[in-house]
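4.2 Preliminary Data

To establish feasibility before requesting continued support, the project team ran the inverse folding procedure on a target of 99 residues. The structure was first converted into the token representation described in Section 3, and no sequence information of any kind was made available to the design step. The complete token record follows.
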């Protein structure tokens, strides 16, 4: 999985990051290390939580795509790409990948 999800804009600051689990209410602090996700191929699908950690004003769009690291497509997962569209005030989105 690519760690593609950082997006800074001078007029609409914000930080998008993978989260291992749904965070508590309140401010989401920036991650201090990359998120690591391990799944079994028998799981069928993995849902990756992307959090808008800072800056909930305005709309933020970010593109994503899978890329091989310790797994290879199509043997281990199906390629996936798309766009996440965070509207003002939205904090969480999911990326689904078939394994």
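Position-by-position output of the design step:
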């Amino acid at each position: 999985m690519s760690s593609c999800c950082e997006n800074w804009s001078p007029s609409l600051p914000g930080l998008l990051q993978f989260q291992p689990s749904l965070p508590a209410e309140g401010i989401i602090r920036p991650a201090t290390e990359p998120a690591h996700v391990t799944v079994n191929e028998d799981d069928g699908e993995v849902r990756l939580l992307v959090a808008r950690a800072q800056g909930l004003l305005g709309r933020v769009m970010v593109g994503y795509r899978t890329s091989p690291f310790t797994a290879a497509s199509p043997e281990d997962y199906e390629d996936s790409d798309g766009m996440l569209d965070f509207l003002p005030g939205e904090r969480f989105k999911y990326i689904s990948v078939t394994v």
